[in-house]
């Protein structure tokens, strides 16, 4: 019976409680319980205050790595504040001078002109210093972001496969883009603005209060309210922004999955169901966006009201004082001008508070990623692998994936393969063939036992030398969006054309490429010419053949190639295989029955091994598989029908 489709309400609820129906790998919370590092990527999860504070200290220290630019930014801020504070004073004096100019007083006029010119010069200076402050502060942020971006990229390259198994690539990209942005803004929006606002409000308040305490307090009365509302607004906006980010991430994953699986969606006529998922995610994002606009509008209006109320009070009280001759009109103008100047920075105080909050959480997440241990890495003092005899040896190798509760995917596998030998590995799906192959180039480290090449334990040699010596033609043949030639020469960008053509011929790709209008210059990959599965696999084989490794692994990499082409590839590689150990994982026995030895894996263990003939004579699992594959299809179907009746 077909399960009922979830209605829209269910989908919205599912989005809210994080149980949105998606594949396991796309669920942001997947694996979180067993793996604390995954909490790193929950954007709405709170950061430990201690971690947040140490992140701020660390960003500040990193910022000091650009002392010249930091000094220029801070000095420019000081001068910009000084210029800004003198504007209301000069303006007040200009007003008083104007009033004194009742008669045609030449000296008074000259003084007014001098004040006007000074005011102009101070305004220009203020503009120039503010420009220098903004430019240098931003440039410090960008330089820091550049360094961190490289560090994040480098880290992602070095993090173990087990980490990538559990982590959605979109989450890593988010850390590398959004979190980095939060850290980038720290110096200009948090630190420099703190200096600016402290000086501006501090010195300004002192100037006003010493001039007239009552009027000064009235002029500053809007500051605490505006600062509070602005900070509260920004922090609320930030919280909703984080939720919005998660909603948008879900939206983009729904879209990504739909694009990647467009054929499945169409084939199952599920467009309406998929549209429902997308609609639910989008409606959530829309509702949040409305909330955000409403928060912003309400708070901005409240701050404007507070400012004009304070201004009204200053005018009322100040006007009475002017009438009573206690202060001059110029002094009142100074107070009003100062309020106008102070208004914008105070209203933006929330941005500063937000910049601290953002930098602390973004920084904590970013540093958690950067500080993550690289499980598979070079040992201190590791030496390059030296291949002499070219012998590969596995001694009682076992392996369990992280989070598998100790259930081993590979158990006690031992094997010795000498140069020139070909070893076939066969077994039912999930029996551990790929896992075993991934232990040899150290994509994962064996949980117990050891693997060595020419007597050197692979954990004692450098990873780069090991991966030059062990090449894997993967199950999934990933192509870069570039020419066929560049894709083949990926492991050796300076390879001569002749060599590229040679490996392409061995992989039975050459004739196909020559048939393309642009030949080896044809661009492939996501947006280029689409190659068939078999052509992609042949390209992937050609790319690996460029490496001249000591151990060559074919991980079910000829499954999409027809038997005739595969046999031609095998013949072409005969000489090549004589110079190295070749391991062939395959489901089709035709692909490996020529091997010198064949291992039959079941539930991670080698249950049978020998040559093709020996295994047939043994009459065990290999023979059963052989009989199944070699029998005419009709016989198998008859047998299945018989079993069913
Ligand atoms: N990255 C992973 N994380 C956790 N478990 C995994 C991972 N990859 C594979 N496994 C599990 O390890 C076991 C062996 O998988 P493996 O891919 O090695 O089998 P296989 O024999 O190569 O299968 P197939 O023939 O289908 O390619 C399976 O139970 C599988 O679910």
TrEMBL record:
PANTHER family in UniProt: ATP-BINDING CASSETTE SUB-FAMILY B MEMBER 10, MITOCHONDRIAL, ATP-DEPENDENT PERMEASE MDL1, MITOCHONDRIAL
Domain of life: Bacteria
Membrane topology per record: Multi-pass membrane protein
Residue ranges constituting the ABC transmembrane type-1 domain according to the UniProt record: 71-358
Organism: Oceanicola granulosus (strain ATCC BAA-861 / DSM 15982 / KCTC 12143 / HTCC2516)
Gene3D superfamilies, alphabetized: ABC transporter type 1, transmembrane domain, P-loop containing nucleotide triphosphate hydrolases
Gene Ontology molecular functions: ABC-type oligopeptide transporter activity; ATP binding; ATP hydrolysis activity
Cell location: Cell membrane
Protein name: ABC-transport protein, ATP-binding component
Residue ranges annotated for the ABC transporter domain, each copy included: 392-628
Key words, A-Z: ATP-binding, Cell membrane, Membrane, Nucleotide-binding, Transmembrane, Transmembrane helix, Transport
Database matches in SMART domains: AAA
UniProt xrefs under Pfam families: ABC_membrane, ABC_tran
Transmembrane region(s): 70-91, 111-129, 190-209, 300-317, 323-342
GO CC, one annotated term: plasma membrane
